[in-house]
Amino acid sequence: MSTARTQCEAVTQAGERCRLPARPGSRYCHIHQRAAAAETPSAPVSAPAETAPPQPAVEPEPEARPPLLTFSAEEVLAYLRDKAQVLPEELRDFVLKGIDEIEESGWLDADTWRGIGYVLQVAAQTQLDMLKRRLRGEYEVDAWGYDPEFTDYILPLAGFFFNKYWRVEMNGLDHIPVEGRALMVANHSGILPLDGAMISYGVREYHPAHRLVRALVADWFPTLPFFSLLLTRTGQVLAHPDNGRRLLEQEELVLVFPEGYKGVGKHFRDRYKLARFGRGGFVRMAIEARAPIIPVSVVGAEETYPLLYNLKPLARLLGFPYFPITPTFPWLGPLGLIPLPTKWFIDIGEPIDTSQYDSELAANPAFVSDITDLVRTKVQEQIDGRLARRKSVFSG
Amino acid sequence: MNTLAITGLFSPLGRRMARLASNFGVRVLGIDIKPLTKPFPGVEFVQADIRNPLLQQLFKSEQVDTVLHCAFRWRQRHHEEIFDSNVMGTMRLLGAAELAGVRKVVIPSSTFVYGADPNNPAFLDEGREFRGPVDYAYVRELREIELFVNGYRRQQPEMIITVLRFANILGGGIPSPMSRYMALPGPPTLLGFDPMLQFLHHEDALRALGHCLMGDYNGVYNVAAPDPLPLLKALRLAGLHPLPVPHVCAYKGTRLSRVLSRRGDGLPPLPWDYLRYSWVADTTRMREELGFQPMYDAETTLRQFGETLREYRYKHDPAYRLAREKWDLVRKAPARLHDTRRRAHAAWVAFRQVTQDEGGAA
């Protein structure tokens, strides 16, 4: 059986020779066969293959195939421009202007799309590679559980809340030392500990040394799934005197919220009134480690979740430290967890030098209480000063 | 060291320490409750229970001056007999050793004694109190032994008692709750928890014991590889695929299986709390006072252990073997397919040439 086929002998309407192969046993292709048959009905339509003279196989040229698209984007636009002449004048101008804009914007350039595709591909590949690497266990986590790669990955989310949502204004960043140990003491507010995240993000992004803030978190969080993981992987540590002392000895920047649950589960009418500063454990920590105490005040976080009532029996039943009733929670379900977009101010005060005190004084409860009160007063003064200057809760 | 007595000779740790010590030319007296089935070269064997009062005469007549106490049976659930053998046995052994004039006793223990608790600080040193529940028998027994040894050390200041709290020992056939946990199919983890864990290469455990037999260190020491790792990273390094379970289901399921099963088989090899709360044993004293440095880091240990685990399963688990062979087929399929396609194409080209030649000839 011969595979050699001949080319159609007909001439197309465009005046060129037809490129299609002829049907077996015929001199024409399937299109021209019918036309030829109509012209010359006497012509042999189906001659037997044996009688047909063996014709030499015509090699089809590679560039002879018809292109898939016979027009370019510019041609389409030219065509549209041509056709737009029939439109009424106002509409015509509008359409022509639109066509011009399309041409100028570069969206028509194939290289633009190729570039976009390339960037997306590289981005997807990078993410996939990172995932694969992490699934092989090849990533670094320090002994405290801090994972720098993961922290960098979720940093943009914190950045959104810091820059866009709460438009945090951070003052006094130069009071934080570029290196060496320091203990930051801040007021605690809002029902979720979001103030710690904002302070950490601000110091990490805008401090000249981009220091990592190690916040000491309450002992309820390690028992929660995902939340405990999120906190430890971003460098937070359980609030325990041993942990704080050890971190300070490792020359870290430590952040404590001495109010604890009393600060977070505060009634709305008590906003910006500091609760008791624990038993002064942080002062003992700082004096023993000879670390400066830096008072930090956060204004704006109290209004993110206005707590109207603390449902203590339910909290006890669920094992929570508090169960907040706010205007939105629990009425709207998970939607009620969305914080209000208030304007935040974080003021970092001047450091209190503790190296002047004898470390034996850390064991003296009266002395520790004095220093605790001093720090508390400083934080309260900063809060009051900011509140007096603040005009609006939402726009500052 | 004149004579070294090793209790629990047939425990993996005891067996390997006996072989090591006899290779070093130490006279080794092996004691075990089970009879000797095949000869143990270089070891004088005595079949005895460690609670036997005649142990004192044995130590005296054989002039034993060092005892390595490896007779500890790891059980999840409480058995009166095993509690008696583990705790009372250690007490009687120490008493007999004191009366027979033994100079030094080395006791391997585990960092499990600290207990997993959400209020633990990140680093626990040797002086830290024990916390958390004791519903696992081995945790309870190890704690009892350690508390007793602590009190005993105060009474007998001239006797050297070294307690080594080993982190999770992996490899070398040494049974630890962690190695049995990692051998479970798809080791279950608690969803949303990833605590820091410490590991120790089996050779480092032997080296640490040898180090304490050679020198005199009176006290308790944590022994662990220098790098603590998160659980998920550890499992991934060993080539295992964790199966996350919501923690509520895990705790409730364990309670249910505890009620349903008569024996301890229904319990996971280690308490869930150890897979939930994060803490790390502080190894400062190991480095500074003991002067001991592990040779292997945790990453190497885990990679080696994963390799051993896969080999073992391939040899002994027919289902795993079948699955792996099938998987190898699937994995190599693209190459094979490509090969087939290439061969088919070559055949087609040859066929076409032949037919065209025939057509030309016709």
Search tags:
heterodimer; A: 396 residues; alpha/beta; Glycerol-3-phosphate (1)-acyltransferase; 12 helices; 9 strands; B: 362 residues; seven-stranded parallel beta sheet; two-stranded parallel ribbon; elongated
Radius of gyration of chain B: 27 Å
> What fraction strand of chain A?
5-15%
Strand order of the largest sheet of chain B: 3-2-1-4-5-7-12
Helical residue percent of chain B? 40-55%
Structure characterization notes:
The complex is a heterodimer of chains A (396) and B (362). Chain A is an alpha/beta fold. In chain A, 39% of the residues lie in helices and 9% in strands. Among the domains of chain A are: 17-49, no CATH class; 73-105, no CATH class; 148-304 and 339-389, Glycerol-3-phosphate (1)-acyltransferase (3-Layer(aba) Sandwich). Chain A has helices at residues 30-39, 73-83, 89-105, 110-135, 148-165, 194-206, 227-233, 241-249, 261-264, 281-289, 312-318, 365-389; strands at 169-171, 182-186, 213-217, 237-238, 253-256, 293-299, 309-310, 324-325, 345-348. In chain A, the strands form two sheets. Chain A has a seven-stranded mixed beta sheet, sandwiched between helices. Chain A is elongated, with a radius of gyration of 38 Å. Chain B is an alpha/beta fold and 362 residues long. Chain B is elongated, with a radius of gyration of 27 Å. In chain B, helix 2 runs parallel beside helix 3 (80-99), helix 3 runs parallel beside helix 4 (137-155) and helix 10 (298-316) packs across helix 11 (318-361). Chain B has a domain at 317-362.
